[in-house]
Structure formats: C-alpha cells, structure tokens
TrEMBL record:
Pfam families named among the record's database cross-references: Metallophos_2 (PF12850)
GO molecular function, one term: phosphatase activity
Organism name: Meiothermus ruber (strain ATCC 35948 / DSM 1279 / VKM B-1258 / 21)
Gene Ontology CC, one term: cytoplasm
Similarity comment: family membership: Belongs to the metallophosphoesterase superfamily. YfcE family.
Name used for this protein in its record: Metallophosphoesterase
Domain of life: Bacteria
SUPFAM superfamilies tied to this protein: Metallo-dependent phosphatases (SSF56300)
Calcineurin-like phosphoesterase domain mapped to chain residues: 1-189
Length: 236
C-alpha cells in the first residue's frame, strides 16, 4: 500500500493541484482527503468538483459540516464565520450534496494493523486532539476506542507524528493553509515496508501563492488569509 493523505485544503485550488500532481509522481495507489475541504479559501466549488471528479474519498472537517448544514457557530474568530457564510453562498446543490454525504471516518487494513482516518477526534471533527500535548494514555485510549494501531488525525494544520508504545498517530498538516511557519502544501505519504510496518514521509510543496492571494483579494475575503498563505503562519 502506498497511500497519499491530504487535509485542510481550505478551498485552495492551486495547492490541491500541486499536492495531487506530487502524489501522482510518487505513484500512490490511493489518495484520501481528511477535511477541511472548504472554508477560508477562494475556490470552494472548484476544489469540491476536483475531488469529486478524481473519486477521492473524503471525510468532513468542522468547516465542511458548518457549510453543509448551516450549523450554529460556537464562539470563534470572526474571519472563520465570515468565510463560512461566504463559502455557503458560492455552492450549489451539487456541492452541498457532496459535503453532506461524506463518511466521518475511513479505515484501511495494513499488514501491521488497522489505520483509521478522521478529522478532529473520532467523535467530533470540532474537537481537535493536540497530538503533541496529549498524555500518552489519552492517545492509547483513543486508538483503543477506534480499534486501530494507526490513526490519521487532521486538525492542527502542522505536520506531526507521534508514537505511543505500538500505536502511531499522524497529522498530515495542511494543503491549503499550512501553519508550520513555512509556506507550501503539506502532504503525507504512508507505505507498508517488508516487515509489515507503516513508513511515512512528509512533503512540503510550493504552489502558485500569487494566484491564491489575488483571488482572496478579488472576493474581498479577509486580508490576513493572504498573509497566512505567503508566510505559513498567522501574522504576529
């Protein structure tokens, strides 16, 4: 198995295209998108249609569900809710149907054990697990609850891997709105080795930042988003 994992696309089409092209060159057998597909970025319809056309399995993130169902928002940053409302206005029934029919998890069986992929936490895409700060027992309890040795947990926008005993959890980072301090699209590749273990590689891919920042400005989306695209972090 050679599996390409993308997450946090956030309606950034040039970043998605760069990620898919890199994964094609890497010869991956399957690509999985682990939410948030939309929110913040200027290309929600194009991103959804590209994923749909490619037949890429997706799980929803919190932003996807808020767009799809117009859920009441908890207290959050103003730009988040502004872009959610704008995104919903850009989508037709075809795209909303796509978001509303996503599975909350995807499972893969590897020679070394089961792998489960989801956004946020197994029960709630809004409840993000901090893989760096979580107590080891919290990680093990989470893996036990999903009966898996491996987990892909999107939500923090920063690539990360953590090993707890025989369990391994990955955050693939963000394709469209990376927050690791370096601009570019984050991609995770998972692959079985000859011993049945799952090997991993994180990729950082450049893309056309200018196109994204131009489109953000053209749609009058919050200016700070262009800075995040250019810098790979929120401005201090």
């Amino acid at each position: 198995m050679r599996l390409g994992i993308i997450a946090e696309i956030h309606a950034n089409l040039p970043a998605l295209e760069a990620a898919l092209e890199a994964l094609r060159k890497e010869g991956v057998e399957q690509v999985l998108a682990v939410g948030d597909i939309v929110g913040y970025g200027p290309h929600p319809r194009q991103v959804i249609r590209r994923l749909d056309r490619e037949g890429i399995p997706c799980v929803p993130g919190a932003a996807d569900l808020r767009v799809a169902y117009a859920l009441p928002a908890p207290p959050r940053e103003g730009i988040a809710e502004t872009t959610i409302i704008w995104t919903r206005e850009q989508l037709g029934q075809r795209e909303l149907h796509f978001l509303r029919n996503l599975r909350s998890r995807h499972r893969y069986d590897t020679p070394g054990g089961r792998l489960m992929a989801f956004h946020g936490s197994p029960e709630d895409p809004e409840n993000k697990i901090d893989l760096n700060e979580a107590h080891p027992q919290e990680i093990l309890k989470m893996l036990e609850s999903i009966r898996s040795r491996y987990a892909v947990v999107a939500g923090k926008h920063i690539p990360f891997r953590r090993v707890v005993h025989r369990g391994v959890v990955f955050d693939p980072g963000s394709v469209g709105l990376s927050l690791g301090g370096e601009p570019g699209a984050d991609v995770l590749i998972l692959e079985d080795d000859i011993h049945g273990e799952v090997l991993h590689r994180f990729l950082k891919l450049p893309y056309d930042y200018g196109q994204v920042t131009f489109d953000l400005a053209a749609w009058e989306l919050p200016e700070v988003l262009a800075e995040v695209v250019r810098q790979g972090r929120f401005p201090q």
